[in-house]
Amino acid sequence: MALDIQAISDRIEIDELLVRYSRALDYRDFDALETLFTAEAQFDGGSLGKPVGPSAIRAMIEGTLTGLDATQHLVAKSLIELDGDSAQVRTYLFSQHIRKDAPGLDYYMLGAEYCDQVERTADGWKFAARRLDRMWTVGDRAVIAGRPH
To answer: Which domains does the chain have, with CATH numbers?
Structure first.
């Protein structure tokens, strides 16, 4: 498959979108997180919820990460299928969540796959739809329940 300069550029920009998402989570930069989604974006987080729109997606993710001492979201190379100004993207994920004061185990890890639809906008590539498909977990899921306030 021969790629032209535009396709190569699009793939690099989409890869950077995925990395910016992980870094926004791990550095708790929720303002930056919101900018990664289109106005009508949908996020299917399974049992975490299915919010629509950047602010609702932020609220779900921020609520999930509240109280954690550390996270690390590692994404693998993506399968990107370009179609003009949109693309289907599938990316493996390994994420670690640490809460030192958890009553049982202090970690929750999961292996998953992100299934995304991304769109080119005037501000670059953004998530239009994102789905988290969990493949396996280890540890205590209560770790991501957050601390009582």
So the answer is: 5-145 (3.10.450.50)
